UniProtKB/TrEMBL annotation:
Catalyzes the reduction of 1-pyrroline-5-carboxylate (PCA) to L-proline. The gene is proC. It is found in: Cytoplasm. The lineage of its organism: Bacteria, Bacillati, Actinomycetota, Actinomycetes, Micrococcales. Keywords: Amino-acid biosynthesis, Cytoplasm, NADP, Oxidoreductase, Proline biosynthesis. Pathway: Amino-acid biosynthesis; L-proline biosynthesis; L-proline from L-glutamate 5-semialdehyde: step 1/1. The keyword Cytoplasm applies. This is Pyrroline-5-carboxylate reductase. Residues 11-110 form the Pyrroline-5-carboxylate reductase catalytic N-terminal domain. Belongs to the pyrroline-5-carboxylate reductase family. Pfam families: F420_oxidored, P5CR_dimer. InterPro entries: 6-PGluconate_DH-like_C_sf, NAD(P)-bd_dom_sf, P5C_Rdtase_cat_N, P5CR-like_CS, P5CR_dimer, Pyrroline-COOH_reductase. The keyword Zinc does not apply. It comes from the Bacteria. It comes from Microbacterium pumilum. Its EC number is 1.5.1.2.
Length: 281
């Protein structure tokens, strides 16, 4: 499906909750949603929260039960953001109403492309996307996997959409669960490390506001430096770690604790659980 370089075609977000809502706000900030976005939610209260976004039509299912089908019919790209258990019924509802050439994108964890294609039909382009929560601030990592009918043009178009909320990694669907253990769960790992460093600061006599500033802003500043410098993390670490200095002693303790092995074990555990969930466990 063709698109010009300045705007995206009409978009529908079916289930504009936390993640769908974050993507919606990224689209609005980008100015690329020039042909409009329709967002659906179950309740009027949730729909009202999005009502003031420029170029967005927000509809509550409790007031207009046919809103999902109508939104899908009017869109070229349809993002499915409802809970995974609700996906099959939603797909059956919208399938008869999709416009020729429409692209359907899954945001639902654990629901395969095969499930989408089996319900929507073999002629519908389907992609599976897995953004993470920093989409809320335009710093997401989104994994993007193409279905059997998605063309290179389709993929490029959907990639542009998700680049409004951060970076995109294209990969085969078989790697989506593995990606979820790194970028999907990754913010929780970072927050856990910040919690631990904050506790260490408290233990050294700092007040809670002081401890939070030191721990949180150190992570924020280090990430900003990494992004701005373009250097490898290992090189930046070496620059901070003076020979025979205090940082070298601290890093030695962390390395002795086999931090790399801990992260490998943690992400392996997350991957095992993702596979259990995909199998319905």
């Amino acid at each position: 499906m063709a698109s010009d370089e300045t705007s995206l075609p009409p978009i529908a977000i079916l289930g504009a909750g936390s993640m769908g809502g974050a993507i919606l706000q990224g689209l609005v900030r980008s100015g690329l949603a020039g042909e409009g976005v329709t967002a659906t939610n179950r309740t009027g209260a949730k729909a009202a929260q999005l009502a003031e976004l420029e170029g967005v039509t927000t509809v509550a299912l409790e007031q207009r039960p046919t809103a999902n089908a109508e939104a899908a019919a009017s869109a070229s790209i349809i993002l499915v953001g409802v809970k995974p258990a609700m996906v099959p019924d939603l797909l059956r509802e919208i399938a008869p109403h999709l416009a020729p050439g429409a692209i359907v994108v899954s945001l639902a964890a654990g629901v395969t492309i095969e499930t989408f294609e089996s319900i929507l039909g073999s002629d519908v382009a389907v992609l599976r996307a897995m953004p993470n929560t920093p989409a809320l601030v335009g710093k997401a990592v989104t994994g993007l996997a193409a279905g059997t009918q998605a063309s290179e043009t389709d993929v490029a178009l959907v990639r542009r959409l998700f680049e409004t909320v951060g970076s995109v990694v294209e990969l085969p669907e078989s790697q989506i669960d593995a990606l979820s253990t790194i970028s999907g769960s990754g913010p929780a790992y970072v927050f856990l490390l910040i919690e631990a460093l904050t506790e260490a600061a408290l233990g050294k006599g700092f007040s809670e506001p002081e401890a939070r500033i030191m721990a949180e802003q150190t992570f924020i500043g280090a990430a900003a430096l990494l992004e701005a410098s373009g250097e490898e993390p290992a090189e930046l670490r070496r620059r901070v770690t003076s020979p025979k200095g205090t940082t070298e002693r601290a890093v030695a303790v962390l390395q002795a604790a086999h931090l790399d092995g801990v992260f490998a074990e943690a992400t392996d555990a997350a991957l095992a659980r993702a596979r259990e969930l995909a199998a319905g466990a």
